[in-house]
Structure formats: C-alpha cells, structure tokens
Amino acid sequence: xxxxxxxxxxxxxxxxxxxxxxxxxxxxxxxxxxxxxxxxxxxxxxxxxxxxxxxxxxxxxxxxxxxxxxxxxxxxxxxxxxxxxxxxxxxxxxxxxxxxxxxxxxxxxxxxxxxxxxxxxxxxxxxxxxxxxxxxxxxxxxxxxxxxxxxxxxxxxxxxxxxxxxxxxx
Length: 170
Known about the structure:
This is DUF2975 domain-containing protein. The chain is mainly alpha-helical. The chain contains four helices and three strands; from the N terminus they run αβββααα. The chain is elongated, with a radius of gyration of 20 Å.
C-alpha cells in the first residue's frame, strides 16, 4: 500500500499542476478576449493568437469567431474542472484508511462529472459551433471513465460497509 500512496501523491501533484495550467490558460484566454491584452488577430479576422503574458510569443492559437471562442473557453474551463476532480480522486488513495465517506464522495463527484458534463458541454457547443468526430471519441472516453469510476465508488461503498461492520465486532 505504500507504493500506491507514493504513486498517488505524485499523480496528485501532476494532475493538480495540470488543473492549474488549464485554469491559468482559461483566465489568460478570457482576459485576452475580453480586453484584447496579449491577443493578436490576423488581418482577415479569421485566426487568433494569445501570447504568453508580456511577450509576443504565441501561446494559444485558434479560429476567431464567436462559436469557436465559446467552445475554446468552455473546453479550457471543463478540463480545469476535470483535472481538479482527478487530483481529488488521487487524494483518496493517499489516505491510511481507503474506505471512507470522503473517498466515496470524491469518486461520486468524479463519475457524475464524467457522465453528465461532457454531454452537456457538447450540446452547448453544438449550438454555436459545428462539431466533428473527435468530439464523439472524447465523450465516449469520458463516459467509460465515468462508468468505471461509478463501479469503483460502489466497491468503496461496500468496503466502507464491511469495514464499519468489522469495527463493530472488534
């Protein structure tokens, strides 16, 4: 179990850093689109570049139209949330007691997020921007991840029940 805790701590840090990176990208993008700071739009008004702060080196690139901008910000925000929830799941595996109400809650948040949010985001984005087949693959992967995590949460609930019964016997 010590190996699992060690790996979970490393993965916690990595996923929290990923959440921070996506979150900062979201904030920088929203600030750039709202104020024009660190934003360059080409002459045809068809492509944008968001620069690293205080430089002219491109950081993020994309199409410059309202539908794409909405999709772009929504996806950055959603993956910020995704990696934050993943990091919270990894905290479950760093605990000395594995089956706890806290752990079950983290797994529930994660599977609900993976089952509901990708579909909701896809519907919202499809209202303003045409979507391709890669989106269907991502939704399927999130759905599978959600189902797998649901099973894991049910196993943890059973483990908590057995653990509590065992504690009552002793």
